[in-house]
Here is the input.
Amino acid sequence: MIEYQMGAIESRFADIIWQNEPITSADLCKRSENEFGWKKSTTYTVLKRLCDKGIFQNQKGIVSSLISKQDFYSVQSEKFVQYTFDGSLPAFLAAFTSRKSLTSDEIACIRKLIDEYNED
Amino acid sequence: MEALFLKILNMSITASWLIIAVIALRFIFSKSSKSIRIVLWGIVAVRLLIPYTIKSALSIIPSANTVPDEIIYHKAPYINSGVAALNNVVNPALAQSLAAQPENSINPMQIVLFISTVIWIVGIVIMMAYAIISYIIVYKNTSESVFIKSCVYMCDRISTPFIFGIFKPRIYIPSFMDSNDLHYVLLHENAHLSRLDHIWKPLGFILLTVYWFNPLMWIGYILFCRDIEFACDEKVLYNEGSQIKKNYSQALLNCSTMKKRTLICPLAFGEVGIKRRIKSVLNYRKPAVLIIVVSVIVIVITCVCFLTDPYNTLSNIEDMNLDSIIDNTAYLTVFNGEVYDSIQGFDKDVLAELKELNISSAPVSQEKNENRDRSNTLILQKNDGVSLYSYFVGTAICFNSDFTEVYVNDGEKSTLSYRVLDSEAATNIFASLTKSNKYEDLLSLDTLKKEYPEFFGLDTSDGLTVFIWQTSEKDYLCYLMSTWIVTISDMSFAFEKGATMSEIHTIIQTYNLSKDDINVTIVENPLSDYHYIIDEKYKDKVKTMFWSYYTPDFTENEYSIIIDAIEADVDNDGQNEKCVLSYGHTSGVYTFNLSVSQNGIEKYHNTFISDSTVKGFIKVDDNVMLNCVSMIDGGIENYEIEFDDGNVLLTCEEKMMGYWGRQGVTN
Here is the structure.
């Protein structure tokens, strides 16, 4: 079971992997050090945690993802709506737009999405 | 190591009094500046760090040495907390459960002390382990952090903002925090940094590690941690002004829903009682000058009263239990070379003043021998402890000739000598108890030394000469000189300054001479208008007047230790006499005094010299005799006690014991 939770720092780390995969663990360490100032041990600790969550894998020193960034955030959004709005997308949208109204571009985009969905 | 534990224990008890005071002061000053509290805790820290401090009469600490160092040597262990009520509760229990049993080779107190020390060290180890483990955990979590700006890092794995690190402190912010609050959080954390809280808190924890066994320490530390947060809020508001109150409180509230942090752990934002913090923030006002002034005064007073140690008093000298002995004295005897019978109806309040007499806490030397100067001694007895064949029973408080040193002897053991810090008080106590002029003289000796320096330190190889002249019908003046100088010099300068007879006598007494060494010469004063005829009658009259000031015993400044005492009818007059046998001036030859009193009045007093050692009184066939052992052949000699013409005669077979020095009773 993949765990779809990541903290802000973990996300930034995950981004490095997603953007550069497949990447050697050594290279990952170097990039982490450049970006965050992390020691090797820290990088490995975080990497292991994310692997345990089922998002990435470390095979013989090569790090790659088990789920794409797009898919990951999709599922995360889904879970969020599930958890907060009982899975009701309309409810979510209503809540989302209650504080800020949609721009005309956004409305057009959504219309297009709905139309595409209807056609399938 | 046990000694160290005892010292720590005593320091913690001393600090406890201060902690209680600080808690009370905190409460009183709770409405005004909270930053004062930090200073008060600073005073507590100082008290816990310094092992020795100056002594002061202003100290409010009841006792700096509650658990005596020698407690393992006590027969019945006791503590001296400085609070009588506390002592009376603890000491009997201690004595009952932990008194040394002679059969056992180890004093139970030693075992208790040893176990306590071990437990103490184990406690320290546990505390340190906790600290180290906490540190490692936080270190691990914060290694996964990302630099934001100067000293500030963001981290996923923490739930509340805090500061970590002592030498290079960093502020860690949780990654999920609301960015609106971030600004205020940073204000707070930076205030912590500028106040150096990231150093004080660990320091406090170190003190807690050492003093962990004292519950007041924990209370103090927890309150200290809280006070740090309040003081920090105040600093932020002081710097930024009141307009940020609302937003700052909001940030506090938002961060308060975090999970609890550990004690050692760093200065977390949302850790401390939120409701009070917010109330304090909203009510904050810049402190008025008056408040600041009052605060400073309070701090200074607290320092003076609690950072100094109290003087040691005579009542807690070693483990003599003088306090209760003084209270329970029924019979009082004073030895000062002049009086040595019981003082009838002494003033208990005056005697009780002895309890408060300040003495040095360290002894003057490690000497415990019997030859120490005890010119002025008080013997305290619960009852009339003189009995047949036994030694005097009581507790002796022994002062030296000028009341600068004291030690105590209860017949079984004696203490070391301590410096008397208030000699005048001691002299006054003796003066009040005995109503003797002798002490007035002692007190005024300093004044005399200042006024007549030329009368002191004279060469007595030929004795001293006193010149006396009359200046008016009732007034006489005297001048004191070395006799050998008098024979070779002109005396005229002497008439410009003279002392009174009683003053001269006081001065002469500091010389340790006998009556025969003093030459009295009556002269005519060329400078005076008062004329008188100097003939033999006049000279005798003045000389008699002069010698009436003579205190008969000034050849023997020391009092005599009693060898033995007995109450019996020695002169067969049908009434009992009290006979006291005491040591005399030794001067290389063996001397002793024998005094016989009846109904409190001394009837006979003789000083003997002998080459036998006097052992004491002995009853042979209903006859009281003096039991002696010859120093020549070790044989036993029993001397008969007889009376003749105001003197005591001691005869053994054909021998009669010789007299030496002072004979006869004083008036």
Chain A touches chain B through 13 residues (CB under 8 Å).
